[in-house]
UniProtKB/TrEMBL annotation:
Protein name: Arsenate-mycothiol transferase ArsC2
SUPFAM superfamilies: Phosphotyrosine protein phosphatases I (SSF52788)
Keyword annotations from UniProtKB, A to Z: Arsenical resistance, Transferase
The keyword Lipid biosynthesis appears for this protein: no
Lineage: Bacteria, Bacillati, Actinomycetota, Actinomycetes, Streptosporangiales
Gene: arsC2
Gene3D superfamilies noted in UniProt: 3.40.50.2300, Corynebacterium glutamicum thioredoxin-dependent arsenate reductase, N-terminal domain (1.10.8.1060)
InterPro entries registered for this protein in UniProt: Phosphatase-like_N, Ptyr_pPase, Ptyr_pPase_sf
Amino acid sequence: MDSTYRHADLTVDQQHALLTAARTLAEEFAGIFGTETIERFLHTSYDQFAGRAVIANYLPLLAERFARQRLRALARVEGKDDAGVPIVLFLCVHNAGRSQMALGFFAHLAGRRALGWSGGTEPGELINPAVVEVMHERGIDITGEFPKPWTSEIVQAADVVVTMGCGDACPVHPGKRYLDWDLDDPDGKTPEQIRPIRDDIERRVRALLADIGVPAG
């Protein structure tokens, strides 16, 4: 593994963190994916975030988390995932507002009975602080999430893809179930203006859970 991360643009600490992440993922996916696949997914996940200086200190952690999600998706696509729960992918433009609120409600209401992911066609740097605030008002903490892109395996693994304002930039895979939610973009809005959007998203998430047969907790 050591040779994969020896690049001039990585600090010693980042190299060490990525090597540790690779070993962790190798243990988690032992018997499912080999070292080469895990290293490739970790490295390409790192590259997805490397251009955003605002999160430079967290790049290895973000790369590990995103690689884990992508590997889970690939396992589902290749029939190596026996979790048996439905997967819903929420997509918007920056993955900083609407899709994060939807994911927050989905994870909170579905628990372990379903799996939710989110992504953006043009991921932002940070989740909208006003969105974090209004979700906190509902007892849902989304500070652990981060804007991220979507990848082919993630879209393919999803049972339902919910799009919100990304238009033609949203990925289209034949045979996939798509829902398009017409929602205002919370970008630039105050918490007071975002609350109706939040409440609309909650109603839609609850209806979606009922539709796919997942009890809302």
